[in-house]
Sequence to fold (386 residues):
Amino acid sequence: MKFLYLVNKDLCRSDYLGVKYKIFGQINAFNAINEVSMHLLAIEDNYLVLRDDKLSIIFSTELKNNYLIKSKQIKKELSKFLQLYQYEFIYYRYAVGDFLMSSILRYAQKKYVFKLIVEVATYPYVDEIDKSFLSLLDKVSVNLLSQSISFIVSYTIEEPIFGKRVVHINNALDKEFVEAIKSKIFQSYANAKQEIHFIGIGNLSKWHGYDRLIKSIAEYANGVQKPDYKIVFNIVGQGKEFDYLVSLSKEYKIENNCIFHGFLEREEIVNLINFNSIGVSALANHRRGLSGDKSLKNREYIAYGLPLIKAGLDYQLDEIYDGFINIDSNEEEFNLKEVLDSYQMLSGKDKLDFFIRNNKFAEKYLCWNSEVEKIIDVANEVKNDG
Fold:
């Protein structure tokens, strides 16, 4: 089975690195299956780039800034690749309001024979888009695609999406990444008893709820009783909330407890996370109308060996993993002392043993291999049905 993974995002943008790693992990898992071959067609630094099943670049051309010329370029190259490689499926990672790629795919399906699989990462996403132009553009884009879609792939529990059958999968990790972490020596994993670190990673948005943790740290650090631990909150990433979180840490006079690292490469994050104790998941999913998710970040924290704090549900892991520290999903600060007590109970005295158990759990249950097999099973059904 021949697949082309299509994504209309610049994978070289610093705020898209996490998605890049995720896509590469998915493709590696697809290509690990016998008789499956998947290429990747994406934008990288304003170049249209085709990568083979080893993720090596086999074609690259610079894209023009003019919308119409750019559209013609992508149509031309996609047509060439469909003829040359005879892809049976295009796996398109949908971007909200992506009229460009929707119209190109509609054009391609009129000329070439292939099945279209569309991945919709978050749904519903109404609260995440502007209510005016982008919302209208999204409706037009979905309408262009909907007639051509064989099935949808999504991490949500919603069904149907765009009026189509949904294959529900879980966010997952690249097996090579999980295995590589084992080779890291976690010299600083067992932190000094008087200091506990939190780490939050993301393209900083309101629904991450990091403001709740900053306010809770202030309440803990500046309380009547002397705190048992010094708290450090490492914040990795930028985004719309960056300036607000910096100003909030100053307003609450805990700027010495909050370190803003900006964007970091995965290797830098690995080195940083060795010095941390608790991963920070989404603490305010309710701000985007969700009661839970299947966060990729949760799975990465577990692979790193960390327990993690979250608010709301994890639709997969709540049933099989016991390393969560759960708080209520609301606008209030929370009792940080209770969180720290839960952390000590979870990790115990042997922090290295806790890391090893978490890493093995990630390797067994949280890698892409089993998730992409769900997609392949349905793709075979669709292929056999003609």
Summary: The mean pLDDT is 90. The two ends are 14 Å apart (CA to CA). Residues 152 and 166 are 5 Å apart (CA to CA).
